[in-house]
Design goal:
270 residues; alpha+beta; outer membrane lipoprotein receptor (LolB), chain A; 13-stranded antiparallel β-sheet; two-stranded antiparallel ribbon
């Protein structure tokens, strides 16, 4: 093959959208390909679990909340509901979200506040607000182990080992200023496990470019053949506040009634 043709073919390969290259010229999957693989992994058609949320402020004061969570797919639409069990002052509070597959359709979210006996709808513009005093946003809770492919541009810039696991480093930049303000993030760096396509660590910057928080996904192990995170630790670098989520009694085989995922279901509880 003539040198000129060889060089042309090499140039085409280097700019291929499916691959990025690290300093050692080893081919790495491109950022958007990694995002697609994250969203393509199996997370079960249905799941139930107990979730403990332990929140610690800068001074070391801890608050603990116990919840029961359910998630179910209705076709390609994902619905999640969380019921608060304790403490007494927020018992029976419930959160419901409908995550639609259409990129141009806003997801629906509702919050039931028992003291007011009202269900409040949460708009898409509120998705960057922090979820009931924790260090995860409504969007973080809604997406769970998935990512918002349409919200960011994705770029792979290397690899690193986290907790003994090879991970791809991916940079995510919101597609525009409006999206950045909605999400509350100006930039995200994610460490994505190269074998199971789950995020093991993520660092966030605010819209002004300042370090905001770090979230770690721990104790990832299979339950009923589905890789499952059992502990999430999210620490806000601005406030010094930290939330630890602990998942117990995770079950992907339980029959979960459709009626749980309705506004009436929020009021009734499980």
């Amino acid at each position: 093959m003539q040198p000129k043709i060889q060089n042309m073919l090499l140039a085409l390969f280097l700019v291929s959208p499916l691959f990025a290259f690290n300093a050692g010229a080893e081919a790495l999957p491109a950022g958007d390909e990694i995002a697609r693989r994250i969203n393509a992994r199996n997370e079960g058609e249905v799941v139930s679990r107990f979730v403990t949320m332990a929140m610690t402020d800068r001074g070391g004061t801890e608050r603990v909340r116990e919840t029961k969570s359910f998630r179910k797919y209705f076709g390609k639409e994902k619905r999640t509901v969380i019921f608060y069990l304790s403490p007494a002052n927020i018992k029976d509070t419930a959160f419901l979200t409908y995550d639609y597959p259409e990129a141009d359709r806003d997801d629906d979210q509702w919050l039931y506040i028992p003291a007011a006996r009202k269900v409040r709808r949460i708009s898409a513009s509120d998705r960057g607000d922090y979820f009931l005093g924790t260090d995860l946003t409504y969007e973080d809770i809604r997406k769970e182990t998935k990512v918002g492919i349409e919200d960011y541009s994705w770029k792979t810039f290397g690899e690193e080992t986290i907790d003994g696991h090879r991970c791809f480093l991916v940079e995510e930049i919101p597609v525009n200023e409006t999206t950045a303000k909605e999400l509350g993030y100006g930039k995200v760096h994610s460490w994505v496990d190269a074998e199971i396509w789950m995020v093991r660590q993520a660092k966030f910057w605010d819209v002004a470019g300042n370090p905001l928080k770090t979230t770690q996904f721990k104790d990832i192990k299979p339950i009923q053949d589905i890789w499952t995170t059992h502990r999430i630790i999210s620490e806000n670098h601005k406030t010094g506040h930290k939330t630890e989520f602990i998942f117990k009694d995770v079950d992907y085989g339980r029959n979960v009634k459709d009626e749980l995922f309705t506004e009436d279901g929020l009021r009734r509880g499980f």
